[in-house]
Amino acid sequence: MRASDPTGLHRVLDDAKDGHGVLPQAAQRLDTRPELWPDEVRVRVEKLNLDAASYRQLERTHTASDGSVDHAGLRAEVLEIVATRGKMQNSETGSGGMLVGTVEEVGPDSHLGLAVGDRVATLVSLTLTPLVIEDRLARWDGRGEQVPCAGYAVLFGRSIAAVLPDDLPTDLSLSVMDVCGAPALTARVVGEYAARSSYGVTVAVVGGGGKSGSLSLAAARQAGAGRTIGVVPHEGEATRLRATGLADEVVVADARNPIGLRDAVAAAGGPADVSVVCVDVPGCEGGAILATADRGTVIFFSMATSFSAAALGAEGLAADVTMLVGNGYLPGHAAYALDLLRAEPAVRALFEGRLAT
Amino acid sequence: MRASDPTGLHRVLDDAKDGHGVLPQAAQRLDTRPELWPDEVRVRVEKLNLDAASYRQLERTHTASDGSVDHAGLRAEVLEIVATRGKMQNSETGSGGMLVGTVEEVGPDSHLGLAVGDRVATLVSLTLTPLVIEDRLARWDGRGEQVPCAGYAVLFGRSIAAVLPDDLPTDLSLSVMDVCGAPALTARVVGEYAARSSYGVTVAVVGGGGKSGSLSLAAARQAGAGRTIGVVPHEGEATRLRATGLADEVVVADARNPIGLRDAVAAAGGPADVSVVCVDVPGCEGGAILATADRGTVIFFSMATSFSAAALGAEGLAADVTMLVGNGYLPGHAAYALDLLRAEPAVRALFEGRLAT
Cα(A260)–Cα(A258) distance, rounded to whole angstroms? Predict the structure, then answer.
């Protein structure tokens, strides 16, 4: 038997190249045996949450010319993917999703801090999680990203799962965990600026009215920001964000317009020491850079961020700013985000409003 | 007359959208009038250095089916681009290049620190630099990226130009300036770790045998690294890098193989507190993340870096690492890199060797 590797390398079934395999996320096929390596955890699955982009792609594939969707065919394709690859990964979008379940076995060398019976959500992607479906998804009609499911999944030594809290509805917790990297990293960065500044730290959150944005505004304030600025795309959202009190200033600007964004943040008390980009539209790099003070930091959480646009944009503008790739993982990020939601009724109301629609 | 903006917005001739214009880099056409706004500088141009990717694209476009290249046609296209757009920007690659010239006028409000008569290289891209060619490129035969040129260019309030030193050949200085952002940012980050660590800081430079890589190794050591590790793709380059003494350890690994890179750096004394990625091949994100210690930093200088691969990779590996978009600009970066070259004969020999081939 292969020795276990914390990355899950030992479960990759692809042919090794150059004497080394690929990582589970890049692999074609994973070993789904239920027996655990010593550092693994097995979870009894209750529900899959498919990634939204992946579900939309599957839906398009199974839409007939008259616009009707073949939901049975869509379900069959999900079953086929998981049976073939040993994981749920849409080959078109590359994305997966997450799952909810209950811990049923913990290897003796696991460091994930989980116990048998814990109800958990996995915070690593389904694209790297060994998964077996045992009920042919009989309770799912192929409609929507929420997939009731019986089966099991395996977590590696180096993985992330968060225990679902008793005091919050599951969907609300999942909705928060989905974006919990943003407030955690925002808090860390703002805290570092606050610790070494004698003046108040100014934080601008682009997309401050959204899920990750509102949590980041709350995190910035808790981490010691002297002034928080929420940037939103139109007046309706500005009114809503102002009502929450989460930001000291709320301004309307198109984040794709560099000069517009710069001037709007400046008018609200900027430039920002820390700018946080939480809007999933391309072309926000230049504006975020210009809205940020010399020696400030831009944190990019949007997956629409272009690496080269950020790198060349800062150089072209002679901007001495630190630019961070928004890492979705920090230790304790899920618990921190849930605590923010509990502490800030306005954040909770915003999340509940989104779940209701 | 429009008021000047440090970004050069006042020279954008595109129609304004939403009351705001685009930045010069994204603009279709720039105003090339020789009269300066108060914060501008005009440079008498001596030579253009076309971006390598741009030149290769132009060459392909002007290659006939028999393989012959129409260099006159290539030259005519460069003239046409500059005449039409008021800047040199290849619409296919989006890239430009840089230029060498002599300062001929300095606006009273310029903060670039330049004086009339200074021989300078512009370190912002030609894609955002107003440019007029006055000699129809008569001294250029269309071959190669080095373009002798008579004409003028304009630098904005927020721009970068470096005075060419007297003690180094121009081509050597340009070759160093081309990658000078990497050593400057490496030195800053390594210095921050060194200042707060009681143990020695370990730095791994992936692509340590190249231009930006060798400078980054020298910068890391100067900034206080306790151990430097150079990662190169094959034994031949390892032998050359070992001979320079720039790295404490030199290891061979394919940077696209995550486990291979992780294990190679670990065997050389890693994981690294700071990993610097200087190789221009896609797929190095996972390996760089795995080669880096908990709470370490990865600096991505490669333009082949994928933002989403870095963000999702770190999350999938539960890696608490800071990931930086390698900003090509830091104050004083050109002078710092030239000083490294002067101080390290091995770096200079490496650069001279590359120029000779």
Answer: 5
pTM: 0.92
List C-alpha distances in Å: A114 to A33, A120, A151, B51. 20, 9, 19, 53
| A window 129-188, beta carbon within 8 A of B | 158-160, 181
* pLDDT tops 60 at residue A246: yes
Whole-number Å distance between alpha carbons of A302 and A10: 32
Residues in chain B: 357
* Pairs of CB atoms within 8 A across A/B: 158
| CA B75/CA A243 separation, integer angstroms | 60
| C-alpha pair distances (Å), B187 with each of A251, B205, B215, B287 | 37, 12, 10, 22
Q: Which among A18, A124, A314 has the least Cβ separation from residue B318?
A: A124
Cα B8–chain centre separation: 21
Query: Mean pLDDT of all residues in chain A?
Result: 94
CA B244 – CA B345 distance, rounded (Å): 9
Q: Can you tell me the distance from the alpha carbon of A34 to that of A44, in angstroms, rounded to the nearest whole number?
A: 11
Residues with Cβ within 8 Å of residue B67, at least 6 apart in sequence: none
Contact flag B124-A315 (C-beta cutoff 8 Å): yes
Lowest mean pLDDT among A45-49, A161-165, A279-283, B155-159: A279-283
> In DSSP terms, which residues pair with A231 in a beta bridge?
A206, A251
Handedness of CA A283, B32, B180, B333 (dihedral sign): negative
Tell me the per-residue pLDDT of A278-316, one tens digit each, with 9 for 90 and over: 998 889 999 999 999 999 999 999 888 999 899 988 998
Question: CA A74, CA B18: separation in Å to the nearest integer?
Answer: 42
Q: List, in order, residues 6 or more apart from B93 with CB less than 8 Å away.
A: B51, B53, B54, B57
Whole-number pLDDT of residue B21: 65
The tens digit of pLDDT for each residue in B275-320 reads 999 998 889 999 999 999 999 999 999 888 999 889 988 998 999 9
Q: What's residue B356's pLDDT?
A: 79
> Is residue B164 within 8 Å of B100, Cβ to Cβ?
yes
Reduced to 3 states, what is the DSSP secondary structure of residue A264?
helix
DSSP type of residue A41: E
Amino acid of residue B154: V
For residue B332, the distance in angstroms to the closest alpha carbon of chain A comes to: 11
If contacts are CB pairs under 8 Å, which of residues 13-32 in chain B contact chain A?
A: 17-23, 25-26
Q: Is the Cβ of B124 closer than 8 Å to some Cβ of chain A?
A: yes
What does the alpha-carbon distance between residue A196 and residue A25 come to, in Å, rounded to a whole number? 39
- Rounded to the nearest integer, the mean pLDDT of chain B is 94
Do B114 and B161 touch, CB atoms closer than 8 A?
A: yes
